[in-house]
């Protein structure tokens, strides 16, 4: 197919210019970056679930490495927080000790973002100086760096929305922030797979639609994740805490109460949760179809293994999502639900990579 063959051609030109050892080192670095982004997702999820994200009301990209170092610094930070809607409406009377407990998690979240930047820039500079990166790969990596730098600005743009009037960040900005994370993660993971080529797939896959279905699975998973960010932003998970029914119905009332109609997909709590459920079920169905056909039509051990892993992961993700809903968003289950989404995404990318160029 065109997409698979084009990607093979582009990346093939790159691979020819890189030695095996260099490709191994670069791919290890990129997989490490994926792990750092994955960790960032975990920290960010905990920050949101513990209501810690609005505790730091200023953003200092260059000078913000250090936390408050003495009592005066802490009092100054706390004084700024006491002017926010979150303190005035939700946490009025909070003590300095209690403030520190939410401050530290947001500080770690921002600090980890800086570590990600260093972990990218320093090895990138090393590989460039050693002339181990060709022009094509440099351009791709600079694009990823641009996405990462933009993510920092998006994060602050999101936080700012919760510092005026309502003590909640905009669901639109939260969704944009997560969407950028997904794009960065996919870019890093795909590049790492292509450069390393851990699965030397040369045997044919007999069923032509498999790469297309693999791409559809990734699309469904990403859309479900985006819909989940809208659920999180609107706190829609705290309503309709039954499954599969919503207010006693498969299709609940109140899906189209906003005008114009498209606002319901982004601002109507009922619709936002309903569409997340639908996309989650759709992802399970798509993965089931893909796994069955991939397993039946592929003679490749790694391909079958990947689809079996994805089927298990998507089922676990589905059950975790239902549990998160029924038990009204406990932090442990909600965090695991978010992490499982990225695991499902990773395995689905692996499957699409496995099917590349076989048709």
How do you describe this structure in short?
With 359 residues, the chain is mainly alpha-helical.
Please describe what this structure looks like.
- By secondary structure, the chain is an all-alpha fold.
- The protein is built from 12 helices and no strands.
- α10 runs antiparallel to α11 and α11 runs antiparallel to α12.
- The N terminus is likely disordered.
- Between the first and last Cα atoms, what is the distance in angstroms? 6 Å
List the quaternary state of the chains.
single chain
Number of domains: 2
The total of beta strands comes to 0
Q: What would you call the structural class?
A: mainly alpha
% residues in beta strands? under 5%
* Secondary structure tally, helices: 12
| SSE string | HHHHHHHHHHHH
Mean pLDDT: 88
């Amino acid at each position: 197919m065109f997409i698979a063959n084009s990607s093979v051609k582009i990346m093939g030109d790159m691979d020819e210019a890189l030695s095996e050892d260099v490709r191994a080192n670069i791919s290890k670095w990129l997989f490490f970056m994926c792990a750092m982004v994955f960790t960032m997702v975990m920290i960010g999820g905990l920050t949101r679930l513990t209501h810690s994200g609005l505790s730091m009301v200023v953003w200092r990209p260059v000078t913000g490495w250090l936390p408050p170092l003495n009592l005066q610094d802490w009092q100054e930070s706390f004084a700024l927080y006491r002017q926010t809607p979150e303190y005035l409406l939700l946490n009025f009377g909070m003590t300095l000790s209690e403030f520190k407990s939410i401050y530290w998690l947001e500080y770690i979240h921002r600090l980890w973002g800086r570590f990600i930047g260093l972990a990218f820039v320093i090895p990138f500079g090393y590989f460039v100086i050693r002339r181990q990166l060709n022009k094509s790969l440099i351009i791709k990596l600079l694009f990823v760096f641009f996405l990462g730098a933009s993510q920092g600005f998006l994060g602050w743009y999101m936080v700012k929305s919760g510092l005026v009037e309502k003590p909640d960040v905009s669901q639109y900005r939260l969704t944009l922030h997560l969407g950028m994370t997904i794009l960065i993660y996919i870019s890093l993971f795909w590049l790492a797979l292509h450069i390393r080529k851990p699965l030397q797939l040369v045997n044919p896959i007999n069923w032509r639609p498999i790469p297309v279905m693999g791409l559809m699975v990734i699309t469904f998973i990403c859309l479900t994740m985006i819909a989940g960010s809208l659920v999180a932003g609107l706190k829609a998970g705290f309503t309709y805490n039954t499954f599969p029914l919503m207010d006693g119905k498969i299709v609940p009332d109140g899906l189209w109460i906003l005008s114009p109609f498209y606002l319901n997909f982004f601002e109507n709590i009922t619709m936002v949760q309903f569409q997340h459920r639908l996309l989650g079920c759709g992802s399970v169905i798509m993965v089931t179809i893909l796994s069955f056909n991939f397993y039946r039509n592929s003679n490749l051990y790694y391909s079958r293994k990947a689809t079996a892993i994805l089927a298990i992961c998507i089922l676990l993700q589905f059950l975790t999502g239902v549990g998160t809903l029924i038990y009204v968003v406990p932090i442990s289950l909600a965090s695991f639900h978010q992490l499982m989404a990225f695991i499902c995404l990773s395995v689905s990318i692996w499957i699409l990579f496995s099917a590349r160029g076989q048709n």
